Structures are given as structure tokens and as C-alpha cells.
């Protein structure tokens, strides 16, 4: 049986770099302290828990950056400009609402691609990117059918990775995800509550919901996101692990350390190994 592999590097918050077949994709790279410096409300709320594990200017092999939405910890102009300078061939693909914002920060027009649910993006190396709606905390769609918030399904010659972006677990999302055979699913687990809502902090699914979603749609491996960088916008990791151990034994998971790379093996007894 053919062995399929992908190198998956965690770069903090919800950011990843995926390398396969000589093609490199970054998703929501946030590699500065922009949020800490530029977002003043709530007061003293945003303080990075660790420095960027990768310098954006060192990323010379990026072919494509995927942005899930315009919040600064997902679409950071400082990070994107550094990557664009280091990787001259890199394109940046995002929900349509992000495109004028990217132009305003001097990302060149020829690099920009607007993404829409139902319109796959075809890339080199056999990669197909399928935009998936996201509910952060609600699904927002403009009059032309373009989502403000997206996740992405990356189908890569029989290997499928789902990056949820920022979203709740909804019946509509479950229906969409059940049409895919997901090898690795990446889900936010920071949750939401009244007090963060009062402060204008928009939330996502919590640990219990993320574990249940991964089990229901039969992900082979689930990766928790959005829990380790900003402690004030997190419910921690222990609840997620407890859910898996008490309710969903057999569902594989991996908790990344910042900067860590995991090589995922499909159809192999190794299954995964760290670099």
C-alpha cells in the first residue's frame, strides 16, 4: 500500500506550515506581537505566552498563505509582509472581505486570491483547497454569498487536512464535514463565555464540543488549537484531554509544542513521528 506523508509544523495560536510534494502552505501565520502592541481593549488582556517560534523573514519556501479571517492573530500584516518579501512566489488567499485590507497594507495585487465556499482552489502538487464556512460565533455571508469566516479542507492526493479557523460546532458544519474522510482535523478549543463576550472577544467551540465533533465526523487525528498563546482567551488543554480519555478512546490526537514539526504517515504502522 502506498505510504502518504505530510510534514505539519505548528507556529502558534492556530498557525501551521504544511509541506508536501515540494509545496508549502502556511495557514494563519501570526509571528509577531502585533496583537499585544496594537489591541488595547480589554486593558492588559493580550499578552503573548511565548515568543514567535519562527521568524517570518526566514520562511523562504512558502508557496501559499491561507487566511481564515481578518482578526489580527489570524491575518497579521507584519507577518504577511515579511513572508511575502522572503518568498517572492508566495500567494495569499483569504475570504473576499480580507482582500482590500491586504491591498491597504501593500500586499501586491497579483498575489491575492479571494476564496468562496463552493469554489475550490487548485494548486500545484495535486493540492485542492476547499473553503468551508465557519461560525465565529455566527456565520456571516454577504449578499453575494461570500463568507466572512472560513475554514479550509486541503485534499492532497488522498491525504485530507481540515483547518477549522475560528468556529463553533454546528449541525450545518457537521453535515459538511461528514462528506469528507478527514485524516487530520485542527479545531479551536478556547470556548466562549459571557465575560469575554462583554469585552468584545468573539469565541469558538470549547474542548468538549471539539472532542465530540472530531469523534462524530470520524477524524483520524485531532489537533487542538487556540488555547496556548493568550491565557486570557483560553480554557486550557486539560479538559480536552480528559474528554478524549473518558469518552472517545481510540481517537488519536496530538498537542503541539510551538515550532514542533510532526510527520504524519497515512497507511503506515508508524503513523506519526516528530522532527
From TrEMBL:
It catalyses: 3',5'-cyclic UMP + H2O = UMP + H(+); 3',5'-cyclic CMP + H2O = CMP + H(+). Transmembrane segments: none annotated. It comes from the Bacteria. Residues 28-227 form the Metallo-beta-lactamase domain. Pfam families: Lactamase_B_2. Counteracts the endogenous Pycsar antiviral defense system. Phosphodiesterase that enables metal-dependent hydrolysis of host cyclic nucleotide Pycsar defense signals such as cCMP and cUMP. This is L-ascorbate metabolism protein UlaG (Beta-lactamase superfamily).
Amino acid at each position: 500500500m502506498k505510504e502518504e506523508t505530510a510534514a505539519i509544523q505548528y507556529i502558534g495560536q492556530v498557525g501551521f506550515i504544511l509541506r508536501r510534494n515540494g509545496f508549502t502552505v502556511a495557514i494563519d501565520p501570526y509571528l509577531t506581537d502585533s496583537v499585544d502592541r496594537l489591541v488595547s481593549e480589554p486593558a492588559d488582556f493580550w499578552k503573548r505566552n511565548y515568543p514567535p517560534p519562527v521568524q517570518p523573514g526566514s520562511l523562504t519556501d512558502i508557496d501559499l498563505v491561507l487566511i481564515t479571517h481578518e482578526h489580527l492573530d489570524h491575518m497579521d500584516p507584519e507577518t504577511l509582509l515579511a513572508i511575502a518579501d522572503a518568498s517572492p512566489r508566495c500567494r495569499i488567499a483569504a475570504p473576499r472581505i480580507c482582500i482590500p485590507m491586504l491591498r491597504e497594507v501593500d500586499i501586491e495585487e497579483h498575489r491575492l486570491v479571494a476564496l468562496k465556499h463552493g469554489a475550490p482552489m487548485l494548486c500545484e502538487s495535486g493540492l485542492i483547497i476547499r473553503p468551508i464556512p465557519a461560525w465565529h460565533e455566527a456565520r456571516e455571508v454577504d449578499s453575494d454569498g461570500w463568507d466572512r469566516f472560513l475554514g479550509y479542507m486541503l485534499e492532497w492526493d488522498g491525504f485530507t487536512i481540515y483547518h477549522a479557523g475560528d468556529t463553533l460546532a454546528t449541525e450545518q458544519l457537521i453535515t459538511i464535514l461528514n462528506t469528507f474522510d478527514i485524516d487530520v482535523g485542527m479545531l479551536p478549543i478556547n470556548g466562549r463565555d459571557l465575560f469575554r463576550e462583554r469585552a468584545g472577544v468573539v469565541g469558538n467551540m470549547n474542548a468538549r464540543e471539539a472532542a465530540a465533533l472530531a469523534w462524530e465526523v470520524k477524524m483520524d487525528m485531532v489537533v487542538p488549537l487556540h488555547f496556548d498563546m493568550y491565557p486570557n482567551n483560553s480554557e486550557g488543554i486539560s479538559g480536552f484531554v480528559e474528554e478524549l480519555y473518558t469518552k472517545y478512546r481510540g481517537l488519536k490526537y496530538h498537542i503541539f509544542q510551538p515550532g514542533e514539526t510532526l510527520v504524519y504517515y497515512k497507511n503506515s504502522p508508524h503513523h506519526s513521528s516528530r522532527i
